Automatic annotation (TrEMBL), chains A, B:
GO CC annotations, alphabetized: periplasmic space
Record PTM: Binds 1 heme group per subunit.
GO biological process: electron transport chain
Organism ancestry: Bacteria, Pseudomonadati, Pseudomonadota, Alphaproteobacteria, Rhodobacterales
Signal peptide per UniProt: 1-24
Pfam families registered for this protein in UniProt: Cytochrom_C_2 (PF01322)
UniProt-listed InterPro entries: Cyt_c/b562, Cyt_c_II, Cyt_c_prime, Cyt_c_prime_subgr
Matches recorded under SUPFAM superfamilies: Cytochromes
Name of the featured protein: Cytochrome c556
Record keywords, A-Z: Electron transport, Heme, Iron, Metal-binding, Signal, Transport
GO molecular function per UniProt: electron transfer activity; heme binding; iron ion binding
Residues reported to bind heme c: 146, 149-150
Length: 158, 158
């Protein structure tokens, strides 16, 4: 997908075409870009903790109950973060640098949030997993939530 | 502070000098570096949400109760994250690329975690702040926790 440039957007507006949701919002460009960076930090932390749990599940790193519990709790905390401060309207792919957010995030907010809820529920269910096999058994639900959310709400690479 | 290079560390070890805590741990270099990146993502998200609340407190952005509550809740979630998965022993400044973590984080873990608890308590107290002045009134406690933690547990710039 081609990234709309500000010049292109200005041209579209000058032509009198109806503005998208991006223009109905009061957030500055900087606020939108900072929101995208915060979301990427959230995703990085989710990926980091998935990596810890995945490594234990695969036997690449030794099972450690304190590490499993910490990673699962942190995953639940990350999945449970309130969307309002980070998923600002107008910060979708094509309008804000670096964003891969589809507009369905806002048009189908309930569906979007349901995937985070599934991820959080899967993470909480993993707290107390007694061995690597139990960690592995819990990975499926979490991975499915990641995959479903990315397929429905994340656009192609920029 | 000079970053110890691996060559320098090898030289020190070869000289028979007692190894530091970094070498008593089983985490790989990659695991330590990934942990530092995850902490930086956590700090970025904390800074992002502090910025939202600070902007509202200063009147730079309009008061918005949903935004205040989301930012405060997310700050509390970030401050309450379990340290075990991210503050890996051996990932202190001088041993892991990019780290500014002082060894006091591990030698005084209770003091370190107490600052995060203060930040989280300050954030939760801000949920429901009814106007920009109330947001401003709550910023002090949160800012004090940030400052105290950085002074005691964060080393100089790399």
């Amino acid at each position: 997908m081609t990234l709309f440039t500000k010049t292109a957007i200005t041209a579209v507006l000058s032509a009198g075409i109806i503005a998208t949701a991006a223009f109905a919002e009061s957030h500055s460009d900087k606020a939108l870009e900072d929101a995208v960076k915060a979301r990427h930090a959230q995703m990085q932390m989710i990926s980091y903790h998935m990596g810890i749990l995945g490594g234990i599940a695969k036997g690449e790193t030794p099972y450690d109950s304190a590490m499993v519990d910490a990673a699962a709790q942190n995953m639940a905390a990350l999945a449970g973060m309130a969307p309002a401060s980070m998923w600002l309207e107008g910060s979708e792919q094509g309008f804000t640098e670096g964003s891969r957010a589809k507009t369905e995030i806002w048009s189908d907010a309930a569906g979007f949030e349901a995937q985070f809820e599934k991820l959080g529920a899967g993470a909480l269910a993993m707290v107390g997993a007694a061995d690597a096999a139990a960690v592995g058994a819990g990975m499926g639900a979490m991975g499915a939530a990641c995959k479903a959310c990315h397929e429905a709400y994340r656009g192609p690479k920029n």
